[in-house]
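Figure 3 (text version): structure tokens given as input.
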């Protein structure tokens, strides 16, 4: 938890941004796994953490803007709970720790909300992403679950997105800690990448590192010699010499700040000529984003410029053809990179995604694309100093997608299908780093660099 003044200031700003009414920010409840008492590892809601800092389950933060009052609500644990959980601060003490003098039970909160509702005041809450939250809102506001899901406050979403998008110095310090965890995870993965080793073994090592150095992985680990499957969470293969192992993984600090890196390395330690050719193009894409990302530029434009580098490189290899600008405008490159260049990152690895991508990544000026590939871009709007985004270009040869594009006769002016057929056993490459936008450009978060270039990766694999 940060110093309480940080939370006090954030809530002050939020009040000004929203203007009037009552703000309700729900902390998460425990979630059962396979029977009620066997729960998933607890994860607090990130917006609750941002404004109220506390990790305990079952809390609700309330900001009554009109009367300038703030509350933390939750039920104190009783003696039956205490024998299982040990001494736990009561809700009043938790409130004081984050600069709040008013607290009460969930029942008291429900009656406060009820009287606010009866006097016709606006009640602002964020979109719900867990079923229990929808049930809570429905019960407290006396509305249907469908209405509870639909009636979130756009004013509150916009205010929270505005604040959480620009990372504060203490958040950057946490992100640097997360970057160190990511460094340990990925260097371990690269040095473990040997023929005959099971994917699951390396995934387990990484997840252990994340837990030993922070609180958890920041998302389900992707570790596979089938990197062409974008979010492949299965780790059932034994690594085979000559293949590529793609690892997309990150750690989360005890304050829930994330890292999200991807590296792709040759099983056996040496890239084949064909692998190195594609790999070096992806490195060029990665570095181009670093070179042009700065305040004021649209992330959509950074994405498109990177796609042109990819298409140009593939044209040099005979996999694409024609005019590169036209190919990217038509979306032909998406056969090879059917995802966006990157997304916001912070306390959520896809930061604030639960608040709605159109509010987080887009605005009146830049709207989400409907074109295949670019429609997966989670961020398009102009960058600002303090934004943290991922730079994650990739190049994949997805047999089913190649077959489908070819059968439909898509982009025949730009894709050399006969050549592409020869790459169907290639797999996929993605390279990902987390960057912060500075005054005039950007920089990779953290001061340790996970081996990136093909030369760095090969040399690291020989020496570790
Ligand atoms: N791990 C998913 C991503 O990189 O966005
Ligand atoms: Mn990732
Ligand atoms: Mn990512």
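Below: residues designed for each position.
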């Amino acid at each position: 938890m940060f110093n309480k003044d940080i939370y006090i200031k954030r809530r002050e700003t939020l009040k000004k941004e929203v203007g009037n009414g009552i703000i309700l920010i729900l902390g998460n409840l425990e979630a059962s796994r396979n029977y009620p008492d066997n729960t998933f590892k607890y994860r607090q809601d990130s917006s609750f953490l941002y404004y109220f800092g506390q990790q305990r389950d079952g809390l609700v933060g309330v900001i009554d803007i009109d009367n300038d009052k703030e509350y933390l609500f939750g039920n104190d644990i009783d003696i039956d709970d205490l024998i299982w959980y040990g001494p736990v601060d009561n809700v009043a003490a938790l409130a004081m720790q984050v600069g709040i003098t008013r607290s009460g039970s969930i029942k008291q909160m429900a009656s406060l909300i009820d009287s606010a509702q009866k006097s016709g005041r606006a009640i602002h809450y964020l979109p719900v992403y867990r079923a229990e939250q929808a049930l809570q809102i429905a019960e407290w506001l006396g509305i249907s679950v469908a209405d509870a899901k639909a009636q979130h406050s756009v004013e509150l979403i916009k205010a929270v997105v505005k604040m959480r998008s620009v990372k504060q110095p203490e958040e950057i310090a946490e992100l640097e800690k997360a970057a160190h965890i990511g460094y340990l995870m990925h260097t371990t993965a690269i040095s473990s990448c040997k023929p005959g080793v099971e994917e699951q073994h390396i995934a387990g090592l990484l997840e252990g590192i994340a837990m030993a150095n922070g609180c958890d992985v920041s998302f389900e680990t992707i570790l596979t010699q089938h990197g062409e499957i974008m979010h492949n969470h299965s780790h059932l293969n034994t690594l085979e010499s000559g293949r590529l192992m793609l690892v997309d993984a990150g750690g989360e600090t005890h304050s829930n700040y994330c890292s999200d890196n991807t590296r792709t390395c040759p099983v056996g330690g040496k890239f084949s000529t064909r692998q190195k050719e594609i790999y070096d193009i992806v490195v060029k894409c990665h570095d181009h984003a670093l070179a042009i990302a700065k305040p004021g530029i649209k992330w959509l434009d950074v994405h498109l410029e990177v796609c042109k580098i990819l298409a140009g490189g593939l044209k040099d290899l005979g996999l694409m053809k024609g005019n590169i600008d036209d190919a990217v405008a038509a979306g032909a490159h998406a056969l090879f990179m059917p995802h966006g260049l990157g997304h916001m990152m912070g306390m959520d690895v896809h930061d604030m995604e639960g608040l709605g991508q159109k509010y987080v990544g887009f605005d009146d000026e830049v709207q989400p694309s409907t074109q295949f590939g670019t429609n997966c871009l989670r961020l398009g709007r102009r960058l600002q100093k303090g934004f943290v985004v991922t730079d994650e270009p990739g190049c994949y040869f997805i047999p089913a997608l190649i077959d489908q594009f070819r059968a439909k006769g898509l982009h025949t002016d730009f894709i050399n299908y006969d050549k592409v057929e020869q790459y169907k056993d290639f797999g996929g490459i993605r390279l990902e780093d987390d960057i912060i936008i500075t005054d005039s450009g950007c920089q990779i978060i953290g001061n340790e660099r996970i081996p990136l270039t093909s030369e760095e990766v090969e040399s690291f694999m020989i020496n570790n």
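The mean pLDDT is 97.
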